[in-house]
Specification:
By secondary structure, the chain is mostly helical. The chain has helices at 9-24, 27-38, 44-70, 97-112, 125-141, 156-175, 178-209, 213-223, 225-242, 246-265. The two termini are 37 Å apart.
């Protein structure tokens, strides 16, 4: 038997997704900490909501871009499109799935450039005002501040040992915090259901309603993600307006999650009959 040719494209996609994950992961934890440290306390919920809203708008534009790329033939730029006899509605059609990776990669690189110009450290507004007042008083009194001598560099080995000790101590404290673990479990359940819904809904629309891949992606990006983004942004505004503490925010989250669960139950009452498939749902005769 002749050995069938195999493609190793999946390795490049795997490595690309791995690098993308490494690059985008610090934005959420470090970005939220950055906002929490240097923004006013009442403004933090709105800023965090804006961060998550933009994170949800990204997939929406990704679906729209995927819809556009799926209309182009997979070998666009390499073959004469006039010689292609099939259309995107044909089951044999393969869209230019690779084009979205190139466009997204270039845009991600351009979006990362402004981060290089952010200052290494910022001061809170109150601390900055206090420093200005103190500096002005010292200047009026004719007192000059002496710069402290530079700290002696400590051995790297000692720093490494201390870093490991502090890291494991902090990790143990975090994992033993019942409130944090409960929040983590609820987030896992929410995102698991949301990702499953988002992953299989385009395929369901293709099979059940006879839509093309391009149109399915377009409809998903246009109808599913914008309401989620609006909900996140409105949640941040509501938290800022009513100045919710931890307990009130938890009650608010529980109420919204319960209402979402009730609305989601209505999906069980909507649906279409399965397609007639010869040999599966009906006989060949």
């Amino acid at each position: 038997c002749e050995k069938e040719p195999s493609s190793y494209t999946w390795i490049y996609i795997l490595l690309g997704n791995m690098l993308r994950g490494i690059g985008e992961t610090p934005i959420t934890p470090l970005g939220i900490s950055y906002l929490d440290d240097f923004a006013k306390e009442e403004d933090v919920p709105v800023y965090v909501a804006c961060l998550h809203t933009i994170a949800m708008l990204g997939p929406m534009f990704g679906f729209l871009l995927g819809s556009l790329c799926a209309k182009l033939y997979v070998d666009v730029g390499f073959v004469d499109l006039g010689s292609i006899t099939i259309t995107p509605q044909d089951s044999r059609w393969v869209g230019a799935w690779w084009l979205g990776f190139l466009i997204g990669g270039v845009l991600s690189f351009l979006a990362a450039i402004p981060f290089c110009f952010l200052p290494k450290s910022l001061k809170k507004l109150e601390e900055a005002n206090n420093d200005k007042v103190s500096h002005g008083l010292l200047e009026n009194m004719g007192v000059t501040r002496k710069t402290p001598p530079p700290a002696k560099s400590k051995p790297r080995k000692w720093l490494r040992k201390r870093w490991k000790g502090d890291f494991y101590t902090s990790l143990k404290k975090v994992l033993s915090n019942r409130l944090y673990c409960t929040f983590l479990c609820s987030s896992l359940l929410q995102f698991s259901s949301f990702i499953g819904f988002l992953t299989y809904k385009p395929k369901y629309m293709e099979q059940q309603y006879g839509q093309s891949t391009s149109k399915s992606n377009f409809l998903i990006g246009l109808t599913t993600l914008p309401p989620v983004s609006i909900g996140i942004f409105l949640g941040g505004l509501i938290m800022k307006k009513y100045k919710m503490d931890m307990v009130r925010a938890t009650k608010f989250a529980f109420t919204m999650s319960f209402l979402a669960y009730v609305v989601t139950l209505s999906h069980f009452f909507f649906g279409c009959e399965n397609h007639v498939v010869a040999g599966m749902t009906v006989s060949y005769e």
